[in-house]
């Protein structure tokens, strides 16, 4: 659990971060001019049992970092209050709210002894609510915790009844929630129900009513990471929990009221992803998905659903879309700007980025 001493230490470090931004390592050769404007936020690994959340400019070069009590995972960004929320990696014990402009620590919320966080959350479109994926430790019963932003992130509601083991929640442009329900009951990180797991992509109203649930034909495809295309299409990335020598598709698209549509690649290409998709982003033409376990990322045509390019990237991690192109992070420190298949550039950030990035609009 997060202690008062930890809170004080974090606050001290956050205040120091206001005046001591982190300068990028090894950037002289890249000839990239560093900006002072925050544009990207992601969690990072700094060393053995040492973790932080990093605020970066549009190039992916660090402006400052704040220490985390344990390894972080996803980050939610509030676009008008300059708030960001770093969520602990599952089974997480905290989420931390901070000002991404000043580095000020706003609040550190601890999970109760009966609950844990699954590593992701998102703000409502109007900025009033923070939605977080949560679960009961004893049963992995899925919960979306609802927190009142203006009331200091007090919990005001819980949505449930959609399954076991939710991982990521996103907000659609029309305010509906899409939830990647992994379907796996765990003890810590150890799975307990792989034979009977029931993953789904679940849609909720903004008041928590279940609208629709869809599943893939293989129940061992645990639906985990999500993105949307700025309109009505949800993209979901899976973790395969079945036979180790089988390599089913790990990406799918869905629109409410329609069937799931798996994206296409050859089995040997899916094998490169090592049964796991971490981060997803989409433009109007392309879909990009990363796999840190596979040390690669792929680019699919949104119109044909076919894999167009497969790129090697050690510990390929976060991806965001901006103005029709992608930024991809790496646990080895590289930052890729991918304009289209075959058109990319690379710099070195000096940051050991973790699984996800979030973009400040």
Automatic annotation (TrEMBL):
Organism whose genome encodes this protein: Vibrio zhanjiangensis
Classification via Pfam families: DUF1513 (PF07433)
Highest rank taxon of the organism: Bacteria
Protein name: DUF1513 domain-containing protein
InterPro entries xref list: Quino_amine_DH_bsu (IPR011044), UCP028101 (IPR008311), WD40/YVTN_repeat-like_dom_sf (IPR015943)
């Amino acid at each position: 659990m997060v202690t008062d001493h930890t809170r004080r230490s974090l606050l001290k470090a956050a205040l120091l971060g206001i005046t001591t931004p982190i300068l990028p390592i090894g950037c002289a050769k890249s000839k990239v001019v560093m900006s002072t404007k925050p544009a990207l936020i992601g969690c990072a690994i700094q060393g053995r049992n040492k973790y932080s959340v990093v605020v970066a400019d549009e190039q992916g070069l660090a402006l400052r970092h704040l220490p985390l009590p344990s390894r972080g995972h996803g980050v939610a960004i509030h676009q008008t209050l300059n708030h960001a929320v770093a969520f602990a990696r599952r089974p997480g014990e905290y989420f931390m709210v901070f000002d991404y402009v000043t580095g000020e620590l706003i609040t550190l919320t601890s999970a109760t002894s009966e609950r844990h966080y699954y590593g992701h959350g998102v703000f409502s479109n109007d900025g009033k609510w923070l939605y977080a994926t949560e679960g009961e430790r004893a049963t992995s019963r899925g919960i979306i915790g609802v927190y009142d932003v203006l009331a200091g992130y007090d919990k005001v509601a819980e949505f449930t009844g959609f399954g076991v083991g939710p991982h990521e929640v996103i907000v659609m442009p029309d305010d509906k929630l899409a939830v990647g329900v992994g379907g796996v009951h765990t003890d810590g990180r150890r799975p307990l129900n792989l034979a009977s797991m029931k993953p789904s992509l679940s849609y909720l109203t903004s008041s928590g009513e279940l609208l629709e649930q869809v599943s893939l034909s293989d129940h061992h495809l645990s639906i985990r990471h999500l993105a949307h295309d700025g309109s009505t299409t949800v993209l979901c990335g899976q973790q395969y929990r079945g036979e180790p020598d089988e390599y089913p598709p790990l990406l799918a698209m869905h629109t409410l009221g329609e069937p799931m549509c798996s994206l296409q690649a050859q089995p040997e290409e899916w094998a490169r992803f090592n049964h796991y998709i971490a981060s997803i982003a989409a433009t109007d033409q392309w879909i990009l998905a990363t796999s840190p376990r596979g040390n690669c990322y792929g680019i699919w045509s949104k119109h044909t659903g076919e894999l167009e390019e497969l790129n090697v990237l050690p510990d390929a991690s976060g991806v965001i879309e901006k103005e029709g192109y992608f930024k991809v992070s790496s646990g080895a420190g590289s930052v890729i700007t991918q304009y289209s298949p075959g058109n990319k550039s690379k710099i070195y950030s000096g940051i050991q980025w973790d699984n996800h990035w979030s973009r400040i609009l």
